[in-house]
Automatic annotation (TrEMBL), chain A:
It comes from the Bacteria. Keywords: FAD, Flavoprotein, Oxidoreductase. It comes from Acetobacter cerevisiae. One of its GO terms (molecular function) is oxidoreductase activity, acting on CH-OH group of donors. InterPro entries: FAD-dep_OxRdtase (IPR006076), FAD/NAD-bd_sf (IPR036188), GMC_OxRdtase_N (IPR000172), GMC_OxRtase_C (IPR007867), P2Ox-like (IPR051473). Residues 414-531 form the Glucose-methanol-choline oxidoreductase C-terminal domain. Belongs to the GMC oxidoreductase family. Pfam families: DAO, GMC_oxred_C, GMC_oxred_N. This is Choline dehydrogenase. Residues 240-325 form the Glucose-methanol-choline oxidoreductase N-terminal domain. Residues 10-43 form the FAD dependent oxidoreductase domain.
């Protein structure tokens, strides 16, 4: 197939996940022409629902999403990996998964929609650790709300349950009623500990919203909500398309072109699955391709003008990789039957460790009690113990109703040595290198995890738990961030406070890759808020110029 | 999205409140639902009612709800005659007496000339009448201001655009005298002398009493907020494009004869007939039309096509109509839009329930139901057994023969797999719906069991979005606008045939072409690979 | 716990004469048919038409795979259930036989052992089997995994119809098949007493599959 004529738009966006599609939607609604290039294919829900049911290893949330060869994503969280090659002392802790397809990785997330705390944006100033962001909480507050409305976030009334991130408006939807298991957990924490459990804000419908139904508790937010009660990026794709944005699937961008002064981006080039090359030009460009793929694309685009990669005069592209690397334990409660797995997956959090003076020496974290159906796990466990027949059925019921799982999101710090590079040995069928990541857990995070383990042990005791199984090592949380870090100084950061690259005035990045620190809450709402702020900047420049 | 409906409902709640009817807030509250479950949750129940951004409604403010209620409004007050709980069998006798006892208590003489009433009482009556006559359904476009018109109503001759009936003098009916108003309402003649298209059910409204016309006029003039905007003009094909041709139509079309006296004092059946014909204009949709598009009165409520949706036979036929329903069933249906094991309202009927019948008093609902259930039975061409009698729970193991497919595999699935992937999560693999009936069963379901598969296809395409009382029933659509899943014509045909074969009266051999003709929206945007 | 779990209901009235004939044909089909053809044949539509479902009277018709019939008998004993769904059983059997060359003979061996003594419970039988031949433990695991998890040969045979969901259905739904309605999860699920039974087989290492 010969290369078509060059496409052009006011704004060219690489990536159709929550960041790219929400920017496309905002711009298209303002009458600005938009082309979105998505490396992966168009997809639809019904095939994923069947894929999940046909999947033997149900907990594998990557399992229902076998990748296309021209836009591979990690097949699983196993090290060594076929795609994302991790190394270093904590290689397994950075074995992230994500999805390359229309709508992006929010096809499988648990819908947790946290705002960051004001302190998360100024860790250096307040605690002498890490970095400050080049923006403050107040700068992002209106966009947090815009993102909450776009996604449909439910959450508690701030007057009743203050989550520490000041709000100007209530949540778009009322908080989700919590499961019986969560009620019991909450009661225990209230009565027996100095801590508290809060309603987790979630991009999940507690009433019909955006032509999508109310959550019915299928307990399958990850890997696939079967009814669309939880937000994912595909809705923003649909809305953007309806508003006139053009989405091109199976368009694997491999090159970012600049002008002779290397100040402005002039176009991008992409391969189709047959490796025909196409060119798209525009006035502005946004890379919104997920933390790992965004850094990879900037590095792949290296040429004589920018031998270390595009937007990389600082040398920080691909560095400062962070996550919420955490701790996970599973045990059998000795108390009443809880039957976890009735209702959505993650609804309750102990938030006492999200902030405190101790952050000057160890990282913050939050604790999830996972409300995950344990029947399959219990069955495998009981069979392996040697039960059959009626005794097996007794065991399945008991283990299903008494298994408790806790995990934590522990804060990492930006360390330039934690670095994504291009694989020298592994390439995909288009010849584009796979990503390699070196990862060593910062001491700050290690200390945080030690604290978490003590807290978990205390909780296990309070629940008269037995048979504890600690997930070995550290547990990746798929919240990669930092690879195009934000800062005020072009010498040690890649983008400024508006997510504009220091090097190229018309190139923006909308991804968790711009995070200066990673806080504790799930990253998606902050990604969306930053993206909407990018859209706001672009609208101002394009419409009022 | 929800704003429009919530706004309308708030307006109507306000209107109904004038009639002395206490209604619960409209918004669905998870906490309330949780409380209705077997064991209330201690924590979530403690959650305060959400700060719903959509609650206040301009019309509600103007409505001055029920400040001075008088004897007349108490006529319409709900008493203890809430319908019998599901488990409690209602005999025709006691439901009849309940209905009779409710509304008409202080009625002295049924045909006595209407007594003049206070201004407040008249406005209250007008508000209730506007709700019962469901003016808002047509005279408000989605997202538009109440009664400002603009809704396009499909007819065989083209779209008729509803007009602005707010009291704005230029754009609305502000310059109408009461006589002008009456002439339009009951005779289909505008102030400028031109004839209205019979989409406006003036042949029904012709049956309204003088007193009620007066009250309705007063309410429109004093309570409805004027809106200074004109919807686009109706532009029909010849010969209907000639409004003068409507004069001839008007001449031959049969009309209701005006009722007399005080309509609030009628006995049950007379009140029921008045509600059905002069106000709710049931026949506008449910009575088939002749070649002149006039309602065939000898087929009263025997079912009529609305182009896409079909208003089914609701005569008392036990095979073709709803003769197997009890009065309480019908009251529950009109109030909530659903009766487990019988029917759920979608499409235009959902709107009628949402905007009108869910706001009627218990007494009026019983009167209406009692009257409808006495309508002469008419056999149906397509329905030969009661529509809600068909089907039973499906029991088959989900034997699986393939592993996960690559993400770009968008091949069309067959009926059983489309059902499994898109429907079973809510309706159950067995079709039984959810335990709480929030999602209805597909067997014993009038839409599935109907001889005409059109309404099932329309429901799959457009979904259900119906608010009645505190309940917001919602099913996503699966057409080309769906956020949840966009199904192709062939997939919807296969799915429809699977559903009717499994839970209804058999495979109706629906074709993709039929689905396409009903779809009437932009083509499927996603996925591109369908049907390759 | 309830003493006898209800079996998967079967509606015999549903069965057309043609479906009955089909079912007999299926029983008569050779093992190769079962192994290769079953998977494709027993999809929803066809499965719903297949008669019987419940195999109360194993019919050792000439030409049938006798081990398939034995598999059902062994399965009933190992699950302490008087009735099991034949459609599911056939699919599990096909998967297990596919997974290893020894499995068919081992199932036969289990069946022979079953005939050699009066076993009143799954546990007694399983313990005796492992004692007779430690290699039988693996095939018992396969049979348990097939019926309870709905998995054979590492593949999903049934998901929602797996017995693990039947025995927990008073409390919880299989993921993606939750039909309690919105917010059903706020209510209290049933209490479960601590089990008193003992394992019949020696324990195996429990390997959690990585995600």
């Amino acid at each position: 197939m010969p290369s078509e004529q060059t496409l052009s738009a006011d704004v060219v966006i690489v990536g159709s996940g929550v960041a790219g599609s929400s920017i496309a939607n905002e711009l298209a609604r303002a009458g600005i022409s938009v082309i979105v290039l998505e490396a992966g294919p168009r997809v639809d829900r019904q095939h994923f629902v069947e894929n999940f049911r046909n999947l033997e290893n149900k907990p594998s949330y990557q399992g229902p999403f076998p990748a296309v060869p021209w836009a591979r994503h990690p097949p699983n969280q196993i090290t060594p990996n076929d795609y994302l090659h991790t190394s270093g002392p904590n290689a397994e802790a950075y074995q992230q998964v994500y999805l390359r397809m229309m709508g992006g990785t929010t096809w499988h997330w648990a819908g947790c929609a946290w705002r960051y705390l004001p302190s998360d944006f100024e860790l250096k100033t307040r605690y002498g650790q890490g970095r400050d962001w080049a923006l403050k909480y107040e700068d992002l507050e209106p966009f947090y709300y815009q993102a909450e409305v776009m996604m449909g976030v439910c959450g508690p009334d701030p007057a009743k349950e203050d989550l520490g991130s000041p709000r100007k408006q209530p949540y778009p939807m009322e908080a989700l009623p919590i499961s019986y298991a969560a009620q019991q957990f909450r009661k225990l924490i209230d009565e027996k500990t100095p801590w508290r459990v809060v309603h987790e804000p979630q991009a999940r419908n507690t009433r019909p919203y955006d032509s999508r139904p109310t959550c019915e508790g299928h307990n399958n937010c990850m890997p696939i909500c079967p009814i669309g009660a939880m937000y994912n990026g595909s809705y923003s794709v649909y809305h953007a398309e309806a508003a006139g944005a053009k989405f091109i699937p199976n368009a694997v961008v491999y090159k970012i072109e600049r002008d002779s002064a290397n100040k402005r981006v002039t176009g991008v080039q992409y391969y189709d699955p047959d490796k025909n090359s196409h060119r798209v030009t525009g006035k502005y460009f946004v890379i919104a391709a997920h933390c790992i793929e965004t850094a990879k694309l900037l590095l792949v685009s290296a040429d004589e003008q920018s031998p270390d990669g595009v937007a990389n005069s600082s040398g920080h592209v691909g560095r400062n990789m962070m996550d919420h690397t955490g701790v996970q334990v599973t045990f059998i409660s000795g108390d009443k039957a809880l039957w976890p797995g009735r209702g959505p997956l993650e609804t309750n959090v102990i938030d006492n460790f999200r902030d405190g003076d101790w952050r000057n020496e160890r990282g913050a974290y939050l604790v999830h009690m996972v409300d995950d159906n344990q029947v399959d796990f219990a069955t495998q466990m009981a069979i392996s113990k040697g039960y059959v027949g009626r005794e097996l059925e007794e065991q399945i019921r008991y283990l299903s109703s008494h298994t408790v799982r806790l995990f934590s999101h522990n804060e990492a710090l930006p360390d330039p040595d934690n670095r994504l590079t291009l694989s020298k040995t592994n390439k995909d069928i288009l010849g584009i290198p796979h990503p390699d990541v070196y990862y060593k857990l910062p001491e700050y995070t290690v200390k945080s995890c030690e604290h978490t383990r003590k807290v978990f042990k205390e909780l296990i005791g309070l629940m008269h738990g037995t048979d504890e199984e600690w997930t070995p090592g550290y547990f990746p949380q798929d919240h990669p961030s930092g690879s195009t870090i934000m800062g005020t100084d072009p010498k040690d950061s890649v983008v400024d406070g508006h997510c504009r690259t220091h090097d190229h005035e018309n190139l923006f990045i909308a991804s968790s890759s711009v995070f200066s620190t990673v806080g504790t809450g799930n990253i998606t709402l902050t990604v969306a808020a930053l993206a909407l702020r990018v859209a706001d900047t672009l609208k101002k420049e394009l419409l009022h110029g | 999205m929800a704003d429009f409906r919530t706004l309308l409902c708030s307006a109507l709640v306000a209107g109904t409140a004038l009639a002395g009817v206490a209604l619960a807030p409209v918004a669905l509250s998870p906490a309330a639902l949780a409380q209705s479950a077997d064991k209330p949750a201690d924590k979530p129940a403690a959650q305060p009612a959400p700060a719903q951004p959509t609650v206040p409604a301009p019309v509600a403010e103007e409505g001055k709800p029920a400040a001075g209620s008088d004897a007349k409004t108490s006529d319409h007050s709900p008493t203890s005659q809430t319908p019998a709980p599901a488990g409690e069998a209602a005999t025709p006798a006691n439901s009849q007496s309940a209905a009779t006892g409710a509304a008409m208590a202080p009625a002295s003489g049924t045909n006595a000339a209407a007594q003049p009433e206070s201004a407040d009482a008249e406005l209250a009556r007008g508000a209730y009448l506007a709700t019962a006559a469901d003016c808002v359904a047509c005279h408000t476009k989605p997202g538009g201001k109440p009664f400002a018109g603009g809704l396009k109503i499909a007819t065989p001759m083209g779209d008729v655009v509803a007009t602005n009936i707010t009291p704005d003098p230029q754009h609305g009916i502000g310059s109408y005298t009461e006589a002008d108003f009456e002439n339009a309402l009951r005779h289909g003649v505008r102030k400028d002398g031109s004839y209205l298209y019979p989409v406006m059910p003036y042949v029904s409204y012709a049956g309204m009493t003088d007193q009620d016309v007066k009250a309705l006029y007063a309410w429109f003039m004093h309570v409805v907020k004027p809106v200074a905007e004109s919807p686009e003009e109706t532009n029909l094909s010849f010969p209907a494009s000639l409004r003068s041709a409507m004069m001839a139509w008007n001449f031959v079309a049969s009309k209701e004869t005006p009722e007399t006296g005080d309509s609030s004092t009628y006995d049950t059946l007379r009140r029921g007939r008045y509600l059905a014909n002069a106000l709710e204009h049931c026949g506008t949709c449910h009575t088939p039309r002749n070649f002149m598009l006039s309602e065939k009165q000898d087929h009263y409520l025997a079912g009529g096509s609305l182009g896409t949706w079909y208003a089914p036979n609701v005569t008392s036929s036990k095979t073709g109509g709803i003769g197997d329903w009890s009065e309480d069933d019908l009251v529950a249906y009109l109030r909530s839009g659903h009766v487990a094991g019988r029917a759920q309202a979608a499409g235009p009927m959902a709107e009628a329930v949402e905007h009108s019948t869910s706001h009627l008093t218990d007494a009026d609902l019983h009167a209406l139901a009692a009257f409808i259930l006495k309508v002469a039975p008419m056999d149906d061409d397509a329905d030969h057994t009661a529509r809600d009698a068909a089907g039973k729970a499906a029991e088959m193991p989900d034997i699986r023969t393939k592993g996960p497919q690559r993400i770009d595999d968008l091949a069309e699935m067959d009926g059983p797999h489309i059902y499994d992937a898109n429907c079973s999560a809510c309706h159950g693999h067995d079709g039984a719906g959810t335990k709480d009936h929030y999602v209805p069963s597909l067997f014993n379901n009038s839409t599935v069991g109907a001889g005409r598969p059109g309404n099932l296809i329309m429901t799959i395409l457009k979904g259900v979005d119906r608010t009645a009382g505190t309940e917001h029933a919602f099913m996503p659509g699966f057409d080309g606008q769906s956020n949840v899943q966009r199904l192709s014509d062939a997939e919807i045909a296969a799915l429809t045939n699977y559903i009717t074969a499994t839970f209804g009266t058999g495979d109706h051999q629906v074709t993709p072409e039929l689905v396409k003709s009903l779809r009437k929206d932009t083509p499927v945007v996603n996925p591109l690979a369908k049907g390759k | 716990m309830k003493k006898d779990w209800p079996c998967v209901p079967v509606n015999l009235q549903n069965v057309s004469p043609n479906a009955m004939r089909m079912a007999r044909l299926m029983r008569m089909s050779r093992r190769d048919m079962l192994m290769t053809g079953m998977g494709a044949a027993v999809t929803y539509g066809v499965a719903s038409g297949i008669a019987g479902a419940e195999e109360t009277q194993p019919s050792p018709a000439s030409g049938a795979d006798p081990v398939a019939t034995q598999f059902m008998a062994v399965s009933r004993l190992l699950t302490d259930r008087p009735t099991l769904d034949l459609r599911i059983g056939n699919a599990i059997y096909a998967g297990i036989v596919q997974s290893s060359a020894d499995r068919q003979a081992q199932i036969s061996k289990l069946h022979d052992l079953m005939g050699s003594g009066q076993f009143t419970s799954a546990s007694a039988f399983a313990a005796a089997a492992e004692k007779a031949d430690p290699a039988l433990k693996d095939v018992i695991h396969d049979i348990m995994t097939g019926w309870y998890r709905g998995v054979a040969d590492g593949k999903v045979v049934v998901y929602r119809s797996a017995l693990m969901f039947d025995i927990t259905k008073d409390a919880i739904y299989p993921k993606t098949y939750a039909t309690g309605g919105p917010f059903y999860w706020t209510t209290q699920p049933p209490e479960v007493d601590r089990p008193t039974g003992h394992p019949a087989l020696s324990p195996s290492k429990f390997v959690v599959e990585p995600t």
